[in-house]
Amino acid sequence: MNIKENMRKYAPDFLRVVLISAITGVACGLVGAGFVKSISFVTTLRENNGWILLLLPVFGLVLTFVYSRLKVNGVGTNHIIKSVRTEENVSPLLSVAVFSGTVLSHFGGASVGREGAALQLGGSIGEFFARVFKIPEDFRRILVMSGMGGCFAALFGTPFAAFVFVLEISRIGKRCFVAFVPAFISSMTGFLVANKLGVESERFPVNEIPQLTPGILWRFIFIAVVGALVSAIFVYALHYSEKYFKKFIKNEYIRVAVGGIIIIVLTFILGTDDYNGGGIGVVHHVFTHGEVNYEAFILKIIFTAISVGAGYKGGEIVPTIFIGGTLGGAISCILGLNPAFGAAVGITALFCGVTNAPFATTILACEMFGIEGIGYYFIASAISFILSGKVSLYTGRKLPFVHDK
Questions:
Q1: What predicted TM-score, i.e. pTM, was given to this entire model?
Q2: 13 in helix, strand or coil?
Q3: Domains in the chain, ordered, with CATH?
């Protein structure tokens, strides 16, 4: 088949998908804005009323019931990623479940993020429009990817990183290039709509980027290497926590309730709610005040592993940002570096380590911290990518340069 015949055959569908991807982006922006504002509202309510933490097991039971009734038990981010490469469909009801489940998890104080919800919400929205407009299978997958990018951009305010991240974790070969334009349009549209509705982009000020000297270089590399190793520990903690929760507590209702009780007990023992919810305020404190508890990253790993393993919904990227920021900030304080710069490098290393997405990580770092440190962020991503190997939050993705036998 020559080029003209290819264009004649696929151009109408492609142009239709581009148009629908813009519609998908608008929907993602609207849903994303409502989602962010809902999480912000319940988080503020919980922080101002400490007793709400005691309801975490109850909220866990409710969200488990919702997932069960909507028949999306066990459906998560990995399922969305796999659906991009297979004919497996995504239930539109997943968006309802993940929206309510994540809001309830944050309301109760489970240590979860929101990027998993963003990818699942977006994938479900993309699937919905693919069904409504009766899009062919190959282009359906592209719309799912576009939805993922649109919601990610809406929630985090990082449109360029969003569409690159979706393409990078999906790894669908030739279709990746076809998806480039629709995913970009959806990501930008989702970001612009959410921004117009008052969703603030996630930004962390790094006011001082050090000049590269031998003394700076070894300390910077040390943070990146430790960040890569901790990212592997974090991923293993999440995987094994889920595995053993399911092994020892078969009933999902009892499992989520027990997990909630453990989180409550740990919170009261520590006497702080810093590790409940996403904890993004703690990260901002590191950047603005240069202060950090050295044990914070370890405690966040424990809280998140318990929350996710027990069945609370949300995601792991915001906790990853917490872990990377507090780890990098702590090491910087010990080594005499600017804590904000160290926190930025730590977040970069952790994000790349758990996602194995070096290009998206570099772009994300530039969007969140500023482009001035791009050289450092790129090297930190490369170091983390090499050291983390096949370890990833997303078992449903295919790694570049790695071929399973």
A1: 0.91
A2: helix
A3: 11-196 (1.10.3080.10), 214-388 (1.10.3080.10)
Alpha carbons 395 and 405: distance in angstroms, whole number? 16
CA separation for the pair 119, 366 (Å, rounded): 21
Q: How far is CA 260 from CA 32, 88, 106, 250, 276, in A?
A: 26, 32, 12, 16, 11
Angle (nearest 5°) at CA 226 between 165 and 280:
55
Q: Are 117 and 106 in contact (CB under 8 A)?
A: no
One-letter-per-residue 3-state SS of 337-351? CCHHHHHHHHHHHHH
Residue 315: DSSP 8-state: -
Nearest to 297 by CA among 253, 336, 342, 259: 342
Distance CA 76, CA 278 (A): 18
Distances (CA, A) of 241 to 25, 85, 238, 303, 395: 35, 28, 5, 11, 15
| Residues 211-237: b if buried by 16+ CB within 10 A, e if exposed | eeeeeeeebbeebbebbbebbbbbbeb
Residue 153 token pair: 């951009």
Residue 56 CA: distances (Å) to CA of 103, 277, 374, 396: 12, 11, 40, 29
> What letter represents residue 18's amino acid?
V
Q: pLDDT for 193-233, tens place per residue?
A: 999 999 998 899 898 899 989 999 999 999 999 999 999 99
Q: What angle do CA 176, 140, 16 make, to 5 degrees?
A: 90
Give per-residue pLDDT as tens, 348-385.
Answer: 999 999 999 999 999 999 999 999 999 999 999 999 99
**CA–CA gap between residue 26 and residue 269 (Å, rounded):** 44
Rounded Cα distance, 15 and 5, in Å: 16
- 3-class DSSP state of 84: helix
**Tens digits of per-residue pLDDT, 120-177?**
888 888 888 888 888 777 677 888 889 999 999 999 899 999 989 988 877 654 455 6
Whole-number Å distance between alpha carbons of 345 and 328: 6
